[in-house]
Design brief:
about 110 residues; Endonuclease I-creI; signal
Length: about 110
């Protein structure tokens, strides 16, 4: 890969979180006001924990996964699971470990 092409990839890759934070991708979705928040009306994000030793650890990991992806796509203002709408976390135990999945509509 040439140095110029690599530099272009790095610049574009670095700009994605900045675009998400400033103007970005959230504008592609319909928003509505809910309880003092602005929420995406019909767009959900998901996060998964992978196998964790305890249910609590799996819940934390699933929420962290949801927040990280939402932050990448829309920025910090949208990425707080505690502010999200229609929050759900489902967990299951298998093979001595716990797995959880989180889903919610981002709000800010």
């Amino acid at each position: 890969m040439s140095a110029a092409l690599l530099a272009g990839v790095v610049v574009v890759g670095a700009a994605i979180p900045a675009m998400a934070q400033d103007a970005g991708l959230a504008g592609m979705h319909t928003w509505r006001r809910e309880g003092g928040r602005t929420c995406m009306a019909d767009h959900w994000h998901y996060g998964s924990s992978g196998s964790q030793p305890t249910k609590a650890a799996a819940q934390r990991a699933a929420i962290s996964s949801w927040q990280e992806f939402t932050n990448l796509e829309y920025g910090r203002a949208w990425a707080r699971f505690s502010r999200a709408a229609s929050r759900r976390i489902g967990c299951s135990q298998s093979g001595g470990g716990w797995n959880c999945d989180a889903e919610a509509r981002p709000c800010r």
